[in-house]
Design a protein that fits this description.
Length: 170
């Protein structure tokens, strides 16, 4: 969810069941950090995961007598999952997968970089991540800039060096 949506850990922690819109396949994000509420669409795979999770969540809350719990993500006790628990789960999954992980925020960075590498426009990435200022989004262009990489591939020096390499081999 964090990688697919670019959510901040705190935003994920604060999600309520009413923030999930199954018909539109999007999440309503409170905007506590930026002061601007936003809606973030999720892909079909994430949509299926959320929909598969909801009955499990309901069954857990029913068993615990906590059907009034509004948190979207709950712990074993049927209470709102805290940011520390979210981080611990992610770190444990990374360790089990043999993948190095420094912080939860890496998922947000990777989401932004991958969106940009995939050709998503900077203003759209800004809206998805909920950046108040585009300069916050622009820092990801240093990591992922497909247009700049494509431009460098078109530089005439590449053809010149390729010809020189073919001559040296012959």
């Amino acid at each position: 969810m964090v990688y697919a949506t670019g959510l901040r850990k705190g935003e994920m922690e604060r999600l309520n069941i009413g923030d999930w819109n199954r018909e539109e396949g999007c999440l309503r994000i409170d905007g506590r950090k930026t002061g601007v509420e936003r809606r973030v669409p999720v892909g079909a795979g994430v949509w299926k995961c959320v929909e598969a999770y909801l009955p499990l969540r309901h069954n857990r809350l029913e068993k615990l007598g906590r059907l009034g719990e509004q948190a979207l993500f709950i712990n074993r006790a049927g209470k709102r999952m805290k940011g520390q628990s979210i981080s611990l789960i992610a770190h444990n999954l990374a360790r089990r997968a043999g993948v190095p992980m420094v912080s939860m925020h890496q998922f947000r960075h990777t989401c932004a970089s991958d969106l940009l590498e995939g050709g998503t426009a900077i203003p759209e990435v800004q809206r998805i991540l909920g950046h108040a200022c585009v300069t916050s989004t622009l820092r990801y262009t240093q990591i992922a800039d497909p247009e700049r990489a494509a431009a460098v591939k078109l530089h005439p020096v590449n053809e010149f060096l390729a010809v020189r390499e073919r001559m040296a081999v012959a």
